[in-house]
Amino acid sequence: MFGKDEIKASCQEAIGYSASDQIEAVIIANHSMLTRFANSTIHQNMEDQDCVAKIRVVRGKRIGSASTNIMSSISIRETVKRAEDIASASKEDHEFICLPKPGQIQEVSGFSQRTADYSYQQMAEDVRRVIEKAEAAQCKVAGAYSKNIIEIGCANSLGIMANASLTNASIIIVAEKDGSTGYGSGLSSDIGKIDIEAVASIAIEKSLKGIGASEIPPGEYEVVLEPPAVADLLLFLGYLGFGALAYQEGRSFVSGNLGKKIVGENITIWDDAIDPVGMPVPFDFEGMPKEKVVLIENGVAKGLVYDSYTAHKEGRISTGHSLPQPNTSGPIPTNLFMKEGEHTKDELISATKKGILITRFHYTNVIEPMKCVITGMTRDGAFLIENGRITKPIKNMRFTQSVLEALSSVSMIGKERQLSCEGTIMDFPSGCYVPCLKIDKFCFSGKTEF
Fold this sequence. Notes:
It is globular and about 70 Å long. The protein has 450 residues and is of the alpha+beta class. The chain is 23% helix and 39% strand.
């Protein structure tokens, strides 16, 4: 695998090959390991190493991009030439100003040597303990256990030269008994901080409690959402509304609403890739420093995330939220946090007259971007709450709900937060650090047979 020094040298080499007005080189090396298990048996071990160089050149107002995963000098030189040819043949982009100039990158470590050194044998031993725990409860388990070691370098002809070593690890466990399934997950840059047995216990307990699920009619219910479900809502909220490109193009629900109340006053959400309790990343895919950006404060839309292209259009500086260029999504928040409340999950349940406890959502998709309306299904643990008590497991249901309206009817917020796999973007370190929520109005539009 390409190391930090080799990546830096290759970035500088690429810049030296170009005679264009500006050039950017981004090199990402990823060493990933994955263990999959099903029916309480490990059935697949995968290991992959790849390194890709992404070259972007600027000639006047013309931009060209090309990439290669062959890291030889010849291949990098040819990729630079190909990007220059593409730029020469492209239409002028009159809104483009220039590539970004260097910023002050904060020192933050998203690298864990323990994760980097963790072997397949250790991963298999962890899974063995999960299987033994499930067998003791007469359950079957399935899931995926993975780790990534990432080396990234970003450089351009305006003086940027940033590189970092990053790690991330995650496990997803689904336990099953008598047709009932339960879910648990863990995420960290340090694999040793994931409590594998605790994750397994959560999944097993939910599967046992879910046996004999019955059907309830669709309609509007109170809900208590656990962190994986909350993270799913925030992922769509950030993607649909708080990127500067969507805002500038008028296709964001924030367009025309900055400084206005868009959700309940008890909701505060921000993006912060520097906070070590999340998945730390010091800079984005343009080499710009990651900044904390408050998106919603006490219910009011406060800010957006920018890359250099969208920032220059408003005379701003990038907030460090560029995805690999080129892309059609623009900048998006990838390290989301929600402010905690004062209540335990049990207190949220006790305050619910008639509602549903939801573990997570599944197959979530967008219906109306401008209203942030999404649809999906409950999965791996849904339970009816009556008069403050969980009374029975229920079959999964389809929801159709505006995230903005849901966050406008949050009556209670949990005091404990969890880093959730459901908030991840690609294999890059990202995630949502969120509490449980009690939402007083949540619309279920259909039902399922399981």
